[in-house]
């Protein structure tokens, strides 16, 4: 669609701007030769890789400070998942009996107050 310049106000009585939709054009052969083929975007990888739950072994228990404006310290654990990845997960609820080498079941879920990870230790599933 070509770009149209405004028509003369005297001839039409009104000023009209017709703009075309700005679209990206195809790359020229020279540009394609210089840049090479387009690189595929890397797929987003989460610690769970699409699984609903994973087993993990506690490496260390932590106490994290939350972001402002919250102030209560949050109980977290450093885990080694069954996939071999090490992540930090939040422990929900009041009180826990987790210590080093405890085996837990973790589920996905965002916990944005602490910025620890997108994992929660399942409360009823502390194995």
Task: List the defining traits of the structure above.
127 residues; mainly beta; OB fold (Dihydrolipoamide Acetyltransferase, E2P); five-stranded antiparallel beta sheet; 2 helices; elongated
In short:
The protein is mostly beta strands and 127 residues long.
Explained architecture:
It is built from two helices and five strands. The protein is mainly beta and 127 residues long. The protein has a domain at 53-122: Nucleic acid-binding proteins (OB fold (Dihydrolipoamide Acetyltransferase, E2P)). A five-stranded antiparallel sheet has the order 3-2-1-4-5, with no helix packed on it. The longest helix is centred in the first third of the chain and has 7 residues, at 29-35. The radius of gyration is 28 Å and the shape is elongated. 13% of the residues are buried.
Level-2 CATH architecture of one domain: Beta Barrel
Rounded to an integer in angstroms, the radius of gyration calculated over CA atoms is 28 Å
Given the helix and strand composition, which structural class is it? mainly beta
CATH homologous superfamily descriptor of one domain: Nucleic acid-binding proteins
N-to-C span: 65 Å
**What general form does the structure show?**
elongated
Number of strands: 5
N-to-C series of helices and strands: HHEEEEE
Mean model confidence by pLDDT: 77
CATH topology of one domain: OB fold (Dihydrolipoamide Acetyltransferase, E2P)
Write the layout of secondary structure elements.
Layout: H1 9-12, H2 29-35, E1 53-64, E2 74-81, E3 86-90, E4 103-108, E5 119-126
Antiparallel strand pairs: 1-2, 1-4, 2-3, 4-5
């Amino acid at each position: 669609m070509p770009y149209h310049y405004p028509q003369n106000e005297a001839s039409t009585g009104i000023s009209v701007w017709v703009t075309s939709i700005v679209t990206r054009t195809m790359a020229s052969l020279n540009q394609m030769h210089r840049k090479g083929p387009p690189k595929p975007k890397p797929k987003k990888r989460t610690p769970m890789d699409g699984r609903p739950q994973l087993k993990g072994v506690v490496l260390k228990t932590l106490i994290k400070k939350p972001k402002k404006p919250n102030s209560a310290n949050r109980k977290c654990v450093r885990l080694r998942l069954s996939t071999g990845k090490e992540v930090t997960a939040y422990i929900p609820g009041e009180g826990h009996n987790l210590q080093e080498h405890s085996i837990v079941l973790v589920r996905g879920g965002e916990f944005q107050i602490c910025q620890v990870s997108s994992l929660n230790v399942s409360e009823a599933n502390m194995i």
